[in-house]
Amino acid sequence: MGTITISLSNGVEKKLRNIVKHLYGSSKGGMSKVIEDALTNYFVILERSINEDKTIFKALREGNIVAEANTLEELASILKSKGIEPRGLRIVSTKPVKPVVHGGYRMRPTLGRT
Amino acid sequence: MNSYFLDDTPVLEIIIKNPMMNKVFPSEGTVIAILDTGFEGFLLIPENVFKQLSFDKLSLEQRQLILANSLSIQSTGTFGEVVVPSLKNQFDGFIETIKGVEEIVVGTGLIEKLRLTLDYCTRRIEIKSCKEF
Questions:
Q1: Which of A13, A64, A86, B103 is most buried, by the most CB atoms less than 10 A from its CB?
Q2: Handedness of CA B74, B57, B15, A72 (dihedral sign)
Q3: Per the CB < 8 Å rule, is A105 touching B38?
Q4: What is the number of helices (H) and of strands (E) in chain B?
Q5: Which residues in chain A touch residue B77, judged by CB atoms under 8 angstroms apart?
Q6: Environment class of B119 (CB within 10 Å of its CB; exposed 0-12, middle 13-18, buried 19+)
Q7: From CA A108, how far away is CA B67, in angstroms rounded?
């Protein structure tokens, strides 16, 4: 169990104290519990962000998987080693492509015709 | 300096690859891509670049891009690789094209993998991988 001294802005300190009071009243250790829970959740978010890259790419021919790998470079290397012609292959990812997304402001609206 | 302001627009120097067809764009050096947080895709490229990289030789997916005026346009794409030399790192994602687009645009699909700081006061951009703490 460690002890850390930290500085918070007035706004965050006020919110923190209100939450501690709401959740634990005046019981001892409430502040530490809230901060420990908050940091534990924050670490999960960070880990998730870092691990999101663990995507698997698959190469398909007529619906059948002919190769799969963690990166496109690896996938290309596998295809080459198997002597599979890449033309016409469908590449898919375990992180699906969203069917509709915002195009941003760089695209000229005059291009929209559908 | 691989990321900077071009006039008022943040840009990033990148290399685009199609590992399946063993193609690289540009063939030497890097190309400037615009950082656009309003584009929710990974990378948008002009049709001629798409063809130079032989992405059109693969089976392609189509989807809708909603434009700023709420109209939508059909894009065509497949998976490719973006190399960011300043980070010594590469990222895989969906690379698409639409008719008439002349710029290379990096969207949030790639930006979300970066720790990006835009400082308009000093005209400075800091870019790191999310994995760097």
A1: A86
A2: positive
A3: yes
A4: 2, 11
A5: 97
A6: exposed
A7: 8
pLDDT tens, N- to C-terminus, chain A (114 residues) = 889 999 999 999 999 999 999 998 887 889 999 999 999 888 888 777 666 667 899 999 998 999 999 999 999 999 999 999 999 999 999 988 999 999 987 776 455 444
CA distances from B17 to A14, A113, B27, B80 (A): 51, 30, 10, 6
**What tens digit of pLDDT does each residue of B37-59 get?**
999 999 999 999 999 999 999 99
Predicted ipTM of the assembly = 0.90
Range B66-104 burial, b when 16+ CB lie within 10 A, else e: bbeeeebbebbbbbbbbbbeebeebbbbbbbbbeebeeb
CB proximity A64 to B under 8 Å: no
B120: tokens are 């308009």
| Banded pLDDT at B2 (limits 50, 70, 90) | confident
Q: Do B73 and A101 touch (CB under 8 A)?
A: no
